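Here's a chain:
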Amino acid sequence: MPEHRPSSLATTPQVVAIVLFTFIGYLSIGIPLAVLPGYVHNELGFSTVIAGLVISVQYLATLLSRPTASRVIDNLGSKKAVMYGLFGCGLSGVLMLACSFLTHLPWMSLACLFVGRLVLGSAESLVGSGSIGWGIGRVGSQNTAKVISWNGIASYGALAIGAPLGVLMVKQLGLWSMGASIILLGALGLLLAWPKRAAPVVAGVRLPFLRVLGKVFPHGAGLALGSIGFGTIATFITLYYASRDWPDAALTLSLFGASFICARLLFGHLINRIGGFRVAVACLSVETLGLLMLWLAPTPGLALAGAALSGFGFSLVFPALGVEAVNQVSAANRGAAVGAYSLFIDLSLGITGPLVGAVAAGFGFASMFLFAAGAAACGLVLSLYLYRQARRMRQSAHQS
């Protein structure tokens, strides 16, 4: 069955109507993001490594749930996947609410946090990949880059709004308000998703997930290396600012997200125009520079500038390499390709917390950003290699 191809003017409202669910899901993720590391370290009394692990366990859960989420998307449909994920977001809010009433029992509170983060991570894989599949199914595969770009705007925009919102809510109302707000967001998402038209399930041969994973592995590796900078900023920027007695750490996350969104809106069209690999090379170069600025920053103003540059650079890495990754498989395996490719950002963010926490414990907080800059530079070299390989393959095919 051929895909429906709406006019280019009609695609953006359709895409935005679907990625709204990604926004709701990631707002649930963003609200506790700037609060939990400090809560675990300062209120519950656990180490920075444990504080990082609380954040990272969510990404590990997303990583482990990707194959299941991909099967749900390809076999049951992306709408059902999104709705299952929104229910999971609400459930994580219930556990967050329980955690807030157990602060006097640190291990119990930590256990509730861990379980809630595991549930939220599984929900993220369903909502994020499901929204991409739903969007592509509604507007056609020729708009893959647009769907992935707007999905990213929704996710990082939600993180940028959610982080300071969470800090404000906890300051004004208490920790319980985070759990209550996440429950309400999950319920709102389900109410909005219920009446929307589902995208058709694409018929065709389903490749084993591991085979799809192998096809997108090089692209995913580049994404993973570029994601370490985001994971470092998201997880440890509040503790980094506290170590230097700088105010407004949550503003750094907001500026990162705002720069990220601006870059996608201004330059997202370049992916289809000049190719995903070229865009990835340029973006990883900018991200590396921003992370080096964070490493060397003597003042909070320069740290903010480094965070903004990092967000601007990281912005198009996911869709740029993602378009090249999805093109490796047929439409029937699109959900698996998106899931397999996204798995690499989960893996990266999952190991970033404890790994970068250990770097910070051994060499100081500033060293985290040097480490992340080195990873982004490796991603840059890999993307350049993939671009040259793809160009050689096109030349060989043309000559034959």
